[in-house]
Design goal:
135 residues, mainly alpha, two-stranded antiparallel sheet, 4% strand, globular
């Protein structure tokens, strides 16, 4: 349970950093509501979208991923980042992106920040045994 909440918090921070960087770099992202609750709820949506759609998209685009040596996963990440903004707007916590390049920049930033924070909290994110053997 702690792992779930930590992963959720990592995604919220990654989305926050992505929104701030894209806003300052290009001005190409517009938030419906700028509060921490927005980022926390958007991170929850991000987690569901990643859990449900990423495996399906990865399987469907496997030949393209292999052909581009994995670079097509950036396009998948960009699509998912854009989709989270659309789904979030249905709940009042979304964002609007003005171009594909803004979505690509946001997706790359979310990936890098999530990876870095996962490295920092790698001990907390480790799988723990559910039971202990009795000797």
């Amino acid at each position: 349970m702690v792992k779930f909440f930590l992963r959720w918090l990592i995604n919220a921070v990654a989305l926050y950093v992505a929104v701030v960087v894209v806003q300052n770099a290009t001005g190409g992202i517009t938030l419906q509501n700028d509060s921490w609750l927005t980022y926390v709820l958007a991170a929850l949506i991000f987690g569901f979208v990643n859990a449900l759609l990423r495996p399906l998209l990865t399987i469907l685009t496997c030949p393209l991923i292999i052909l581009t040596l994995g670079l097509f996963t950036l396009i998948i990440n960009t699509f998912l980042f854009y989709l989270v903004g659309i789904i979030g707007s249905w709940f009042g916590v979304g964002y609007t992106l003005s171009s594909f390049w803004d979505a690509l920049l946001g997706a790359v930033i979310v990936s890098v920040v999530s990876f870095a924070l996962s490295l920092i909290f790698k001990d907390e994110l480790k799988e723990r045994p559910r039971w202990r053997e009795q000797h």
